[in-house]
Write a structure and sequence with these properties.
The protein has seven helices and seven strands. It is of the alpha/beta class. α4 links the parallel β4 and β5.
């Protein structure tokens, strides 16, 4: 599958994988976050909005195994992180509180959390759907909407297949990784969608060499 100039969204295998296979791929995703920039970008993003001693609440949407939420708790011991995912099996290793729910029908009142956060989640959806998600996140957040996702480009696209010999990535990780990059946004695209959703103060950064984008949108 070639990398196109525009976004190409296709179904990912992890969404329908058997529980044991899904666990293997989720472990890979946690390794990607740990060693290949996910936790680093997370630290930079939250450092812009909170001190290590602060007490705040976070809704982690599309949390999967909850590894990013765990990284938040390690850095901010007083943070309260709620993990939400559509797949019950993916949340098996996530710490409580955790909730199985649809991100398009979130069961919370407006202003329920200080921060609404997602990581490697937005690229699964069309541009119009991302705008809808951002609007919903803006409604729930008291302080800011925060997001981390992939930066569409050749480095990220070819990284997993070319390093499989070294890291032993699972088949699903390699396949879904390329699908994810092909569906990912560029900096200006993410910013435009945030502005469409009413996040007029949003800022988007590119993090190299990690091929990640981060969005910080005060509300």
């Amino acid at each position: 599958m070639p990398l196109h100039r525009e976004r190409v969204i296709e179904p990912e295998m992890l969404d329908h994988a058997a529980p044991d296979v899904a666990r293997a791929s989720l472990r890979d995703l946690a390794r990607v976050n740990r060693y290949l920039g996910g936790y680093y970008v997370l630290g930079r993003l939250f450092a812009a909005v909170a001190k290590n001693t602060d007490s705040f609440s976070v809704l982690d949407i599309g949390a999967a195994s909850g590894d990013m939420g765990a990284a938040i708790r390690r850095r901010y011991p007083r943070a309260q992180v709620t993990s939400l995912d559509y797949q019950r099996e993916h949340l098996a290793q996530a710490a409580a509180p955790k909730l199985v729910a649809d991100a398009f029908h979130l069961p919370f009142r407006p202003g329920s959390f200080d921060f609404v956060f997602s990581s490697l989640f937005l690229h699964h959806f069309t541009n119009d759907q991302i705008v809808d998600l951002f609007r919903s996140f803006r409604c729930l957040a008291r302080r800011a909407v925060l997001a981390i996702d992939l930066d569409r480009g050749p480095l990220a696209y070819h990284f997993l297949p070319n390093t499989r010999w070294l890291f032993g990535w699972h088949d699903i990780t390699v396949s879904d990784g390329q699908i994810s990059v092909a569906a990912a946004l560029k900096k200006d695209e993410m910013l435009a969608l945030a502005v469409r959703a009413g996040l007029t103060n949003a800022r988007v950064r590119v993090h190299r060499p990690w091929s990640r984008l981060s969005l910080l949108a005060p509300v």
